[in-house]
Design goal:
Layout (H helix, E strand, L loop, with lengths): L3 E10 L9 E9 L2 E9 L3 H20 L4 H11 L11 E9 L3 E7 L5 E4 L2 E2 L5 E5 L2 E9 L5 E5 L18 H12 L5 H15 L8 E10 L2 E6 L8 H10 L3 E5 L1 H11 L3 E2 L14 E2 L4 E3 L2 H14 L6 H6 L3 H12 L2 E6 L16 H17 L3 E6 L1
Parallel strand pairs: 12-13, 12-17, 13-16, 17-18
Antiparallel strand pairs: 1-11, 2-3, 3-4, 4-5, 5-9, 6-7, 6-10, 8-9, 10-11, 14-15
Helix pairs in contact: 1-2, 7-9, 7-10
């Protein structure tokens, strides 16, 4: 397995007064460690633009899923999309970022602002080949991935930000590059970087965007495995097997649940140090075991992590809460969302008698649902997930 991981994240804002975004991002896994991210920008804004951009990205995604080459996909799209008779421009523009085995990225760019590549902390002028397909000028690039490469694709709503407000001619490419060079230095994930850039665009528009704006970012980084132990096994005799598999895995180790922590403590022959220090009123305190990176309470804490995870794949409004919090849920969230690339869940099927009280909003099925919901959200973040039940 290649030791690089291509992290992807995107965020959009709508044209002021519009309920639908005229830009659309579609991400399709091609095969193991390969995927295609398509950012399409429909002409204008509102419903028409939303339909055009969605169709464009979906057509490209479908063609790729059917095994067509990117050249065939581009040719089909280029010949399919008409030119507006009034404005003389295409009804939808697009940027395709094809990650191949986490080793190489193929860029196909048609009429969107050219993708920015930050390499070694600075803007990198990558090679581009100009093609003419169906009478349309298209740029194609093949770039070998290097650790910490950051690719920034955007719709034209980003460089148009601030026209007539902060700037006479919008937010110039050089200024966007300078902003992102500083942001990239912070070591943030692709999702966080896209949020930071879009938040700045929104600010430059004075809170009333004059165009839809979308950013899609791919960041190449080293793989970072994380292992989570959640609940004791159904059969008490399987404790040793479960613990042996869990602690033999490379990467960080997180233990969730009081009973689970006691079993881990016994297996490691290290004391379990509990605390009554509530950092957050709605999340139980963390504990400590030598040899374990993080020990937290179970269902209540994981439920909070699920809430944060669903927000991350949505509007990402709770970022500041979990990114700076010191409670168990925030600590888990930072590890899973910002550090981890490959996540292994070890889930015990034992029924906790304390959870069977009908007066409590917790039961066995809820615990299983939490794992499924969290796994689903993490997959949408691009994480590789494996769940083992005991």
């Amino acid at each position: 397995m290649n030791n690089l991981y291509a992290d992807v994240g995107y965020k959009s804002i709508n044209h002021y007064g519009e309920q639908l975004c005229g830009d659309h991002v579609d991400i399709v896994e091609h095969d193991e460690d390969s995927y295609v991210a398509v950012l399409a920008d429909g002409l204008g804004s509102g419903v028409k633009a939303s339909i055009l951009s969605t169709l464009t990205s979906k057509i490209i995604s479908t063609l790729i899923a059917e095994g067509l080459t990117l050249s065939d996909c581009v040719e089909t799209i280029a010949q399919t999309l008409p030119i507006c008779s009034v404005r003389g421009v295409a009804y939808s523009t697009f940027t395709i970022m094809h990650v191949v085995k986490n080793r190489e990225i193929e860029l196909i760019q048609y009429d969107n602002p050219l993708t920015i590549l930050i390499r070694g902390g600075k803007n990198y002028d990558y090679p581009k080949t100009e093609l003419n397909i169906g009478g349309k000028k298209i740029y194609r690039s093949f770039i070998r991935l290097q650790e910490d490469d950051v690719f920034i694709a955007m719709s034209d709503g980003c460089p148009h930000a601030g026209i007539g407000l902060e700037y006479n001619f919008g937010w110039q490419r050089e200024e966007i590059i300078a902003f992102m060079e500083a942001a990239v230095a912070g070591g943030y994930t692709a999702k966080t970087l896209s949020s930071m850039l879009i938040d700045e665009v929104y600010s430059l528009y004075g809170g009333e965007p004059g165009d839809d704006a979308t950013v899609c970012i791919i960041k190449a980084r080293k793989r970072a495995p994380v292992n989570i132990l959640f609940g004791p096994p159904r059969n008490r005799d399987d404790c040793g097997k479960m613990m042996s598999l869990f602690f033999s895995k490379e990467g960080k180790h997180i233990v969730c649940g009081g009973t689970t922590a006691s079993i881990a403590s016994e297996y490691l022959k290290k004391p379990l140090e509990t605390s009554l220090n509530f950092v957050s009123s709605d999340v139980p305190p963390v504990a400590k075991i030598e040899g374990v990176d993080l020990v937290t309470e179970g269902v209540i804490t994981v439920n909070k992590v699920v809430e944060y995870a669903n927000d991350v794949i949505g509007e990402n409004k709770l970022y500041e809460k979990w990114s700076y919090g010191q409670d168990g849920a925030s600590l888990i969230s930072r590890i899973l969302f910002e550090e981890a690339t490959d996540i292994n869940f070890y889930v015990g099927r034992a029924v906790n008698p304390a959870h069977q009280n009908p007066d409590l909003p917790i039961n066995f099925s809820i615990k299983m649902n939490l794992v499924e919901e969290l796994s689903k959200a993490l997959r949408l973040m691009g994480k590789k997930i494996k769940v083992s039940y005991f």
